[in-house]
UniProtKB/TrEMBL annotation:
Protein name (record): SET domain-containing protein
Residue stretches making up the SET domain: 4-271
Pfam families referenced in this protein's UniProt entry, alphabetically: SET (PF00856)
Organism of provenance: Dictyostelium firmibasis
PANTHER family documented for this protein: SET AND MYND DOMAIN CONTAINING, ARTHROPOD-SPECIFIC, MEMBER 4, ISOFORM A
Gene3D superfamilies assigned to the protein according to its UniProt record, in alphabetical order: 1.10.220.160, 6.10.140.2220, SET domain
InterPro entries recorded: SET_dom, SET_dom_sf, SET_SmydA-8
Membrane-traversing stretches: none
Length: 576
């Protein structure tokens, strides 16, 4: 038994050991709560994250500006905890004296700068190297705990040697260079004796396969830490998982995101579920050494999600789609796609061709290359948008207009050929929603906000249809943000209505404005905002639990936007 709800099953096939439930588990029920053996913040130079416990503290910036995200993560306790810089030499930041004086850190301190520099030079992942270093030291201090937990995780080095030998060599070189340098500098031999290359490499492989990312506590969910846990690492992967995990500081919690029957296998997901099959499979193959055979991966339509599907250019009826089946080619040793049309009547010319010809079809190749170009374009423009503000807007506007024009051209020429759930549509709606929201802020313009809302709604629809019957952190964020942008729209509407009333009172209103209709619109909008926050809250309680800061915050937003508790429609100065 791992907990009272699940047990480990020993198994020798390629999937290895796995975990099954011992009872029926309801959606939202907590399966595990475990503190990591060791963790490392990803932004290790940033004073906002404690280098030891990864806790995120609030930094009040010099200009005293508070963004939406900053507000969400502020807590009174955090503000009181001023970051402390390491006094042993590495200059990292800690949340408290206790963390900065920790024995593990004192022992690792003199290695840190060298490991960072060498890892960058050798193109090794710095956080993985720092985490391996910390685990080795902690193993010496808490060897019993190590042996009983993470020390039992299966060895992953052999699999990496089989599939990715150069990966191992890269990390071996890195380790060797750091230690040669330390020896030359006459570092304390008793300290150097703690480390050996084999243990380091085994840990690096294990961290790649078994570690868990902690995401920021705001609604952007940016990866901020890498943690090494025991029980959670026993779970196998599925692209249709039945649990959702969250990491906060050092603690990982897993909750059921679907109902789990007794004796059913428990799966988490090692990848972003909004990605199409080929991208998920590449990540799993390259960093976790296996090919996923779950139902979603085995079906070219991804269980009718159609994230990679293209309208069939032969059937041309808007009903049939060409979709890829992903497979591992043992000759090329690569993951490849086999394309096929969904038309089963035998009338599709695309399907009449041999598989090889289908994959090399000219028209298909053009669309796939267009998709690639579109994705490169979408990923390249974020920086520009984040820099725009009212003072620079006039200079930036021509560039933004150009981006919008290009996006609309892509919509007409490329996206119109893709299923409405295609990954490109998701990226397109997200990008346009962000762009219009930014523009509405800079120009205080109503129409931009409406467009931003429309695109975000469509994006939320796609996310929902990908996640299907499952609850998830992504849905918490989607509904919360949808509520937020609608709230901005609500404020604009109220402001407009109040202006009309003022003008009417002064008999200056030349337009025949229907104030009653505006009031109904405002009421309906408030209802919709409440519905968004309620949805977000309901998902949050299931995936993060009642006491999580997001659930508490969302509960307040639900109450605030509840029409029944709001006796009058809020005016523009009191509502927020
Ligand atoms: C975090 S471990 C999970 C526990 C593992 N089965 C064990 O015995 O230690 C991840 C490794 O398990 C295997 N694995 C996990 N999910 C799998 C799946 N869906 N299909 C095949 N192998 C899988 C892969 O070898 C992967 O690198």
């Amino acid at each position: 038994m791992i907990t009272d709800k699940c047990k480990l099953v020993n198994n020798n096939d390629e999937r290895g050991n796995y975990v099954v439930s011992t009872n029926e588990i309801k959606v939202g029920e907590l399966l595990f709560s475990e503190e990591s053996f060791s963790s490392i913040p990803l932004e290790f130079h940033n004073k906002q994250y404690c280098f030891l416990c990864c806790k995120q503290s609030e930094i009040i910036d010099d200009k005293n500006t508070t963004t939406e995200e900053q507000t969400t993560k502020t807590t009174t306790k955090d503000i009181n905890n001023k970051p402390i810089q390491c006094k042993f030499g590495c200059n990292m930041w800690f949340c408290s004296e206790e963390c900065s004086n920790d024995m593990t850190h004192q022992l690792e301190c003199s290695f840190i700068t060298k490991f960072i520099e060498s890892s960058v030079k050798n193109e090794c992942d710095v956080s993985t190297c720092l985490l391996a270093l910390r685990i080795i030291i902690k193993n010496k201090i808490q060897s019993e705990k190590y042996q009983e937990t993470v020390g039992k995780l299966s060895n992953q080095k052999e699999k990496f040697l089989e599939t990715n030998k150069s990966f191992i060599e890269k990390y071996e070189n890195n380790f060797q260079q750091v230690f040669d340098q330390l020896k030359q500098e006459n570092s304390d031999p008793s300290l150097l004796a703690i480390f050996n290359k084999d243990e380091f490499i085994e840990l690096v492989c294990s961290i790649y396969v078994n570690s868990f990312a902690g995401l920021s506590n705001d609604f952007n969910r940016i990866p901020i830490s890498n943690g090494y846990f025991y029980k959670p690492a026993l779970l196998n992967h599925s692209c249709e998982p039945n649990i959702f995990f969250t990491v906060k500081d050092l603690k990982l919690e897993m909750r059921a995101c679907k109902k789990i029957e007794k004796d059913q296998e428990i799966f988490d997901s090692y990848v972003d579920l909004l990605l199409p099959t080929i991208e998920r499979q590449k990540i799993l193959f390259n960093s976790k050494n296996f090919i996923c055979k779950c139902l979603r991966c085995s079906d070219s339509t991804e269980g009718e999600r159609y994230i990679s599907s293209i309208y069939c250019f032969h059937c041309n009826d808007g009903v049939e789609f060409i979709s890829p089946e992903v497979f591992y080619n043992t000759d090329t040793k690569r993951l490849e796609e086999n394309w096929k049309c969904s038309n089963t009547t035998g009338t599709c010319k695309f399907n009449e061709k041999e598989q090889n010809q289908r994959n090399k079809d000219n028209e298909l190749e053009v669309i796939l290359s267009d998709i690639k170009e579109f994705k490169e374009f979408i990923n390249g423009e974020d920086l520009l948008l984040s820099n725009v503000n009212s003072s620079t807007a006039d200079q930036e506007m021509p560039i933004i207009e150009n981006i919008l024009k290009r996006l609309l051209r892509y919509e007409r020429d490329i996206l119109s050929k893709l299923n409405l759930n295609h990954q490109c549509w998701l990226l397109f709606h997200l990008k346009l929603s962000k762009t219009f929201e930014k523009l509405s802020l800079v120009y205080n313009n109503f129409d931009y906000l409406i467009q931003s809302i429309q695109h975000y709604k469509e994006m939320t629809r796609i996310v929902e249809s990908i996640l299907k019957d499952s609850t998830s952190g992504e849905l918490v964020d989607c509904y919360c943000h949808l509520g937020r942008i609608n709230e901005k729209y609500l404020l604009s509407l109220i402001k407009q209505r109040n202006q009309f009333i003022q003008l009417k009172l002064q008999n200056k209103n030349k337009e025949d404005v229907d104030i009653e209709k505006l009031n109904v619109d405002i009421k309906n909008l408030l209802k919709f905002i409440n519905h968004c926050y309620l949805n977000s809250y309901n998902h949050s309680v299931l995936v993060y639990g009642n006491n999580h800061s997001k659930s508490i915050q969302l509960n307040e937003m639900v109450l605030k936007s509840n029409l029944k508790s709001t006796t009058t429609i809020p005016n523009s100065t009191t509502s927020s």
